[in-house]
Amino acid sequence: MGKRAHPSELTPARLVNESQRRGCRLEDLPPPLLREAQKRGFPDMRSILLPPPLIRDSLNQPLLGDLLVTRIGYCARAAGHYIPRPEGSLDHILHYCVAGKGWLRLAGREWCVPPETAFFIPQDEPHIDGADPNEPWSVYWIHFTGRQAPDYFAALQVSARAPLLPLPCTKEILSAFKVVAGYMTEVPTRYTLVAASTALARFLGLVTLRRFAQAPRQRSEEKNIQQTIEFMGQNLGQQLSLRELAQLAHMSVSGYEAAFVKRTGCSPKSYFNRMKIRQACRLLTETARPAKEIGAGLGFADPYYFSRLFKKLLGLSPAHFRKQPRARGTVALAASIAPTRSLRRRRLGGDS
């Protein structure tokens, strides 16, 4: 680049201008020069990072060992923003482009990063990312680690080969990010770090929720599955087949079952049984009808099976449930949804 710039003159914007003027790329410039310029920062940049000793100590602590925020920041209109990590990062990374454009090189591919897009980089993955020279991005970033960190990548269905995720720039999303940043600006005690990690979990949970509500096809699928859930609620006394529900959702049997489990974490059969048992709890609490009659009205022809399923889900029989006032507070448990084994039968109303 000709005469070596004085350290006080090194800025990312100047490097971009000089490299464009001389017809070279940022990656062609000497790494020490790039590192020095990036270190000097940008006019509108905020960055907070934990020192390595504190990170090591925190990862040995309860809760923080599961999820720990190690770095967080923001940069607006970051002309010259260029981050090469040939050996990858020790942490997992989330970048969120809220305006402008950028690019990412990862796992042998290059992606254009448009506005309102996040990208995720697993730890130890070599990568380079940077701002578009003509429309530089405004970007948020979070670095995090811990035992549960890979689980969030799995939940979001992102990886080194599929790192991009459309994410609308809403007040809800930005507020959740700023809550994490707010805790990180405080003195880093165990309590503030736990608060930041909990806020990060909420932020990632919100991103996961929005991630599966973007595509029109997914919204249609969500609506159809919700329609079958409402249909279940209107037919608690019936034995509904999986095929019948799939037809109602305008889906194949296998596609419906997979989509239902993805949405609820529970098979259609198990979900339907929990709806039935929840209704049984209400009837046992609010009426004097015999348990056998209540079970029959909910489609359980075998009273012994009804009692066995009730006890399996709530931990006590219908008779004991009715006799113990405190037990009635467990009505909500009947509606709880937990992942179950794949369906082995094609009728809904068998064992959960």
Structure characterization notes:
The chain has 352 residues and is an alpha+beta fold. The protein has three domains: 1-41, no CATH class; 46-211, Sandwich (Jelly Rolls), CATH 2.60.120; 220-335, Arc Repressor Mutant, subunit A (Orthogonal Bundle), CATH 1.10.10. The protein is built from 13 helices and ten strands. The chain has a six-stranded antiparallel beta sheet, covered by helices on one side. Strands 3-8-5-6 form a four-stranded antiparallel beta sheet, with no helix packed on it. The longest helix is centred in the middle third of the chain and has 22 residues, at 190-211. It is elongated. The chain starts with 11 loop residues before the first helix and ends in a 29-residue tail after the last helix.
Keywords:
Jelly Rolls, disordered N terminus, elongated, alpha+beta, four-stranded antiparallel sheet, 352 residues, Arc Repressor Mutant, subunit A, 3 domains
Summarize the structure.
This protein is α+β, with helices and mostly antiparallel strands. Helices cover 43% and strands 16% of the residues. The strands form 2 sheets. It has a 6-stranded antiparallel sheet with strand order 1-2-9-4-7-10, with helices on one face. A 4-stranded antiparallel sheet has the order 3-8-5-6, with no helix packed on it.
| Series of secondary-structure elements, N-terminal to C-terminal | HHEHEEEEEEEEHEHHHHHHHHH
- Measured distance between first and last alpha carbons: 70 Å
Total strands: 10
Write down the domain tally: 3
Q: Report Rg.
A: 27 Å
Query: Fraction of residues in helices?
Result: 40-55%
What value does the average pLDDT take? Answer: 82
Query: Could you state the CATH homologous superfamily of the largest domain?
Result: Regulatory protein AraC
Overall structural class, as computed from helix and strand content, comes to alpha+beta
Strand fraction: 15-25%
Q: What's the CATH topology label of the largest domain?
A: Jelly Rolls
Strand order of the largest sheet: 1-2-9-4-7-10
Largest sheet, in brief, is: 6 strands, antiparallel
CATH architecture of the largest domain: Sandwich
- Pick out the low-confidence regions: 1-10, 330-347
Rough shape? elongated
